[in-house]
Amino acid sequence: MYQLPFEWLSVILITCLAVISPGPDFAMVSKIAISKGRRSGILCALGIGAGVTLHLTYTLLGFGILLSSQGWLVQSIKLIGAGYLIWLGLQSFWPDIQARIRPSKTDTNEPTQVENGRALGSEHPPFMTGFICNALNPKTMLFIVALYSQVVSPDTGMATELGYGAFIAAAHVIWFALIASLFTGEHFKQHLARFKRVIERCCGGVMILFGIKMLA
């Protein structure tokens, strides 16, 4: 009876701290929102929430501890996730790379892929980008498994556990949707419009660094 409010408070506090801490999801949402607009940023946030829901689903079904105990599986997810982050980060630098590879086209009237905005992987749907990035993040998997195994009591009912899961997924969506809205607000855009490409490159560089950190 008296454990439940404390458990709820613990879940809320730990989740909020985990969500607002800088990570690949933050860099990715920022990059997509700045480069593609608010709608794409919010779709990316929804994709992150879907990825969190995937981790919650297998954890609530009892597979979370089993999966997290398989070192080879965690390492495989880490390698794939790191590669995906690096690939996403390189998208920010692809127009520059392409311009260096084919500089002659910049002097003609023929539109290039850079001018058309067809950078490497830029047509990837924002929702799927968010989903894949979060689903391949071993930190999210380990966070949710640890939360349900260390904080949530074995006596907690399934309805309450589902409530925790709904809060965790909603917290991710709301936070990153707010980030997307902030970075696409009129005040923000007016002051940083001139630095849009620089910010995109910075976000891409951060994603590459996170991918390298995962590999290390």
TrEMBL record:
Keywords: Cell membrane, Membrane, Transmembrane, Transmembrane helix. Pfam families: LysE. The chain crosses the membrane at residues 6-29, 41-66, 72-90, 127-150, 162-186. It is a multi-pass membrane protein. The keyword Transferase does not apply. It is found in: Cell membrane. This is LysE family translocator. It comes from Rhodanobacter aciditrophus. The lineage of its organism: Bacteria, Pseudomonadati, Pseudomonadota, Gammaproteobacteria, Lysobacterales.
